[in-house]
Write a structure and sequence with these properties.
Layout lengths: L10 E5 L9 H15 L5 E7 L1 H12 L7 E5 L6 E8 H11 L3 H16 L10 H13 L5
Parallel strand pairs: 1-2, 2-4
Antiparallel strand pairs: 3-4
Helix pairs in contact: 1-4, 3-4, 4-5
């Protein structure tokens, strides 16, 4: 599938059952599509779910054995199937982190999405030598607007 420019389009599923305004799908989807085409050109699909701290805490306990809420969890897709993976984001955590960093929550959501995408691509800041952090900094400079 291609978009109007002829670029391969990535199917993006965005779930926001709590209707958090920070998910602004009309703004987020084109931004996310641009990012994915560049950093994951072979991806056919990608999923995002916006949730609260309770859901992130349950998922973190279930999948990582850590009983606390976290800001973002990534679930990489199966290699060779085209699905890059799924990312679960705590909007309340994003709001707090944005306030602490002095920018808006939408920007923090973008930051968390970049982080989650890198995990879906196989990067792991807990075990690498800072490679993921350096790559993430470059992506932030390229894809995050300085106005936010």
């Amino acid at each position: 599938m291609s978009d109007a420019s002829g670029t391969a389009a990535v199917e993006i599923a965005i779930l926001n059952p709590n209707r958090y305004p920070e998910s602004a799908v009309r703004l987020l989807r084109p931004w996310l599509s641009t990012v994915l085409v560049e950093v994951a050109p072979d991806a056919a699909s990608f999923g995002v779910r916006f949730a609260g701290d309770r859901e992130l805490r349950r998922a973190n306990a279930k999948y990582r054995g850590k009983d606390y809420a976290t800001d973002v969890l990534s679930f990489p897709g199966e290699a060779g199937e085209g699905h890059l993976g799924d990312v679960l984001i705590s909007v309340p955590r994003a709001r707090h982190q944005a306030q602490d960093a002095g920018h808006d929550a939408f920007r923090e959501v973008e930051i968390l999405l970049l982080h989650g995408i890198l995990h879906c691509l196989g990067h792991d800041h807990e075990t690498d030598d800072g490679t993921m952090e350096r790559h993430e900094r470059r992506l932030r400079k390229k894809f995050l607007s300085s106005a936010r």
